[in-house]
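Lecture 7 notes: from sequence to structure.
We start with the chain below.
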Amino acid sequence: MHVLVVHDYGPLGKILLELLRETSLHVSPLLISDPASANLSALENWIPEDTDLIVNALWLADPEAAENDPEGTQKAAFSLPVAIAEFARDRGMALFQLSSCYVFDGRKQSGYISSNPGQPVNQLGNWQWECEQALRTLLPRHIILRTGWSLSRFIRKVRASTASDEALLLPGRCVGQPVAVRDLARVMTAVIQQLDCGAEVWGTYQHAGAEVISMYELGLAIAGLPGIPEDLHVIDDMPEWGALEPPNTALICTKLRNTFGIKQVPWRSGLVDELAMIRGEEKRLPAIKPAG
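Predicted structure tokens for the same chain:
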């Protein structure tokens, strides 16, 4: 099976490509450094004719960034994947698309299952939910994988707070499950390998790290990592961006386990690796920035 991985300069695409290249799959990368400015009419020039599965590894999991760039978010979270889905449909290709827990409004008292309808409360969730609905209409042979919070996002918040010597406000009322980049790449690789074996298991799935936690408690867990200054103050309070966060984004991931045999792993087990990955990424950043 020929797998085309659409990725940016972020770590998910890099790790996913490394894992897939360890398999027997024929893997090709497609770098889209700026999805917001991508020419959607040029897909024919980007996507090889013999592609069987397009994996869109452009992972959008930061509602703050989405609110600051609504047009770019619409392009990356909706317009680009829908254009890819239309291209795939016309050529008999399948699509693996990422979504997130932000398609939900958080008013449910228990965890969300994959068949629960979206009720987004922010730009990111809105365009991801619109994308999900469009894919279900356009392309029967699709996998949608909703993820929990980005663990990297909160590690970066902690590091930014230590750099500015300011207290970090994190809301204890918002609960969910983080997911580490390497864990997400592991799950995506396992799903893709089973698709290669001919599994007809198209549809919507969910994945996040095991253990539901509040954002405040997550901040405390990150603050306890080696190398994080001990004088960091994490406070249970609502920051300005807190209005973007649904109170409950817990995901029930049993469908993924029952269908593919993929088990959740504790997100805590990925904390040290995720921090090291972010530090390494920051060191390499000047070298990978595009010219201009």
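Points to note: The chain has ten helices and twelve strands. The CA atoms of residues 78 and 131 lie 5 Å apart.
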